[in-house]
Write a structure and sequence with these properties.
The protein is of the alpha+beta class and 197 residues long. 42% of the residues lie in helices and 31% in strands.
């Protein structure tokens, strides 16, 4: 008995679909995925920032973070899940690592602005990459605060100088009145002496 032509096509389609699903399952079981929920981060100087990622893979993964800026490329940290951690000496006291692949940078400065690359490698050697752009801004209001304090200081000094000048002027007028009275009384005495003579 010969199969019907329509059944044969369905059997091939079902076989192809099963093959595709098996291949997808095989790739998924050995694959690695990475999610970067916040690819752009804006921060100010002296702030702590979280470079958040989340990865998934079968087996043990190796996570590596690098910083790329106009000054060059710097390796921040590399670690294997549950095994070793290799942190750069530049970032030794400034980085905290998390099991999901995220890192936290403490006390960022303008020099920390740039691109942060994360590489997740599974035990089969498959890699996936993620990028986060970090912008770090200086706090401008501190400069304005300095100007405001300096202006208040100058205003206070000028007020004290104006009061001092007013006191000097009053003292001068009192001294002139006293001197004028003494001169007038001396002149009267001289005139009276000349008249008596």
């Amino acid at each position: 008995m010969r199969p019907l032509p329509g059944c044969r096509r369905r059997a091939v389609a079902v076989g192809a679909a099963a093959l595709c699903l098996a291949a997808a399952w095989a790739l998924q079981s050995k694959g690695v995925s990475l999610l970067v929920p916040q690819p752009n981060i804006n921060a100010t100087v002296a702030q702590n920032i979280l470079l958040s990622v989340e990865y998934s893979c079968r087996g043990v993964a190796t996570i590596e973070w690098k910083h790329v800026s106009s000054r060059g490329t710097t390796k921040i940290v590399e670690w294997k899940s549950g095994n070793y951690v290799n942190t750069s000496t530049v970032y030794k006291d400034r980085v905290t690592i998390f099991e999901n692949g995220s890192i936290q940078l403490l006390n960022v400065g303008v020099r920390d602005a740039g691109y942060y690359f994360v590489t997740v490698t599974d035990e089969y050697g498959m890699n996936i990459y993620g990028t986060i752009v970090v912008n770090v801004y200086e706090i401008i209001y501190e400069d304005l605060h300095f100007v405001a304090v300096f202006f208040a200081f100058l205003t206070g000094v000028s007020a004290i100088l104006i009061c001092f000048m007013w006191l000097c002027n009053k003292s001068l007028h009192l001294f002139q009145k006293t001197t004028h009275k003494l001169t007038a009384s001396t002149t009267e005495e001289i005139e009276l002496e000349t008249i008596e003579c």
